[in-house]
Amino acid sequence: MNDKWKEIKRQENLRVLAAILLTALLLFILAVAGTLRNGKMAQNQTETAILKTDSSKDSERSKIALPEKDSDDIALTQGDQEFLNSLMGYFGNGDLEGAARLLDSYEISWSEFPCMYDGTAMSKKLLGTKGLIFLKPSTVFTGEFLNGQPEGSCTALQVITLDEGKRYDYSYGTWSGGKMNGSGASGYNYYDGAIGDINRKSAKEGVFKDDQMEGEVTYTSTNTTGETTKWSFKTLAGKIVLDDRWIQENDSQGGIVYKLMADQDEKHAYTLSESNIEEDRWKNFIEFSID
What we know:
Elements: H1 2-63, E1 73-74, H2 78-92, H3 96-105, E2 115-117, E3 122-123, E4 130-136, E5 139-146, E6 149-162, E7 165-176, E8 179-192, E9 199-209, E10 212-223, E11 228-236, E12 239-241, E13 247-250, E14 256-262, E15 265-273, H4 274-277
Helix pairs in contact: 2-3
């Protein structure tokens, strides 16, 4: 009887111990699960805080005005950039014919004129002090500028296609207020297709005042065979001033003409009618005008 009771008591103790162990195990599992859940919640809260912070930063950034592309800039292709840099190179080397051939052969992609290229970008605003200013696809100025017009040393070039051939007109020298003022030259050159009895090259050098020639002028003419002739005379406000070197004659129609023999060459005479004498033809070939 006593042994049986002891056995029963021992089994009860084992059940109690098993219950205690099971309870402890459950409490341990619950504790671990709670820790993991709390950690996850803390992580989520941290991530949420970070997201809120990032969102706040993004919101602040959105309030800051980002730099926008200047609406006056003109988009250029890689080909445009190469063309413009090559054109500046020709001008820098004093090669007007090379510049004219390039200008005539390249199809410009932009359509806004006037515009200015400063060596890096093209703009509809003429604000730079050096570079290229295009008045139109066939007319370009290069050199020094102020307030959007030539000021200082500057060269103008214009390409023209005529029945007798392709030519370029040019003007270079000292400019002030957008006009030639000071020493300079203006003329033209047929660089392709010039045939017949025409002057292939023509150049007039001297002093300009507001685009018109004043004082002594040297006029040079070259025909299609390469023969060059030179004359010297005086001008005032772009008009020839007659002196005793000019010979007055009558033409076949009875009209008055004036002849000036070439410098050191009695075979060639520069002949003008009476109406031609009154014309202010001795001036800058390429005026700077953006109207």
